[in-house]
Amino acid sequence: MKKFILSLVGIKQLVALSGLAMVGFLIAHLLGNFLIFSGPIAINNYAYKLHSLGPVLWVARIGLLAMFLLHFSLVIYLVIVNKRARNGSYAVPIHKKTRSIFTQTMRYSGLLIFIYIIVHLLDFTFTPHTVDNSVIDGVYYGLYGHVYNYFLNPIRSIFYIVTMFAIGFHLVHGVQSVLQTFGFYHKLYTPIIVKSSWIIAVIVALGFSSIPVYVCLHNYLGWEIYVAT
Amino acid sequence: MKKITVKLVVWRQNGPDEKGFFKTYFAENIDTDASFLEMLDVVNEGLVKNGSEPIAFAHDCREGICGTCGAVVNGEAHGPREKLTLCQLHMRSFSNGDTIVLEPFRARALPIVKDLVVDRSALDRIVQAGGYISVRTGSAPDANAIPVPKKDADQAFDAAQCIGCAACVAACPNASAMLMMSAKVSHLSSLPQGQPESKQRVLDMVSQMVKEGFGGCSNEYQCEVACPKGISVKYIAQLNRQYLLSAIKSE
Fold this sequence. Notes:
The structure holds two protein chains of two kinds. Chain A is mostly helical. Helices cover 72% and strands 2% of the residues of chain A. The N and C termini of chain B lie far apart (66 Å). The interface between A and B is large, with 42 and 56 residues.
């Protein structure tokens, strides 16, 4: 069995499975992030509850890290094998009849996402919320303040939005590709799945991007921070 | 009768280990009703008359059923028309003064023998690895002794149209033989006669494909539009599904 799982078709299925797991995580993460629109208490409570899960949280974290490493390392292997398979390049490149910008940029969008995940972990997971980074107008807001101050930096915000669109690009092909890789092909359902992967990609890209946009608007228009009693 | 003159930029390579290069030829006063290979025949006759080496290209039936011919014409396997082999392409698909770049199918697993001729025996070895069924020897079996549902027979017949020309490999960004292999797998596994080996078949054929140095599938479907027989990528899905089930059940 090991021999077969570790052949081109099996590896591709592991890539698809780990990718799908990360999409699931991403959607959960997005839903959590939306709590920022409800103000500091909502999102800080959510973060507190997540952290108080203790061992369950660590199981999820290790699982996610394993999926991430599996996806990334197997893709590198596949890229090498696939590159090697073409012996010499065509003088007139093969017409890109069915290749879209999304499929052609999979490895580049993936690389950008890889870099961003490291940056994101360093900036948020490994950086505690302190009075140096989480204070808005003299009040300490914890995670909310941390995120708020982070996105006031335009370079960080732009890098974030670009990466979220890279994720969207990655998912347009990635999500629907999973079904083909696992052998699901249906005259009626496959076109619906292709449309659904577009919808997921757009929701993820726009959903995450809405947070830096909201923070910048919030600050620019001088809205008050909503603290429910 | 319309006549055209086209400029050919052709890949020339004297042998498998020789260095290849492009050479320009002019195919003059070619009848537009001539097939692409007939045009090459005319060019070759001129070359032979001049004492030069003719352009080597593979061909056999010249009616699109044998899978022997094939080259990449201006970046398209088997040329600009859909669902045709190179021999079925006619010069009416080109205009006077066109430049036609002619290259062999390029893949590590399909080494160039000479000019436009590639060695497709890697595909034969994939078929040998699993493309067989077990049958009873002796007298011929009764007709219709094994019932085959119409739908399954149609699917097997559809997949069996693959002529093994390797256009899918040529057009694939990863030089993968998945479409050809999936057609062979579906052809046999859709029929009751192909059931005894159906689990081992898909495992053995994929192993052989990897061994031959083909790439993997990245679901870009370039193969489907390049295929002269219009084999659908749904057969790749079927192969993936069978592979997963067989791999899990294998020891």
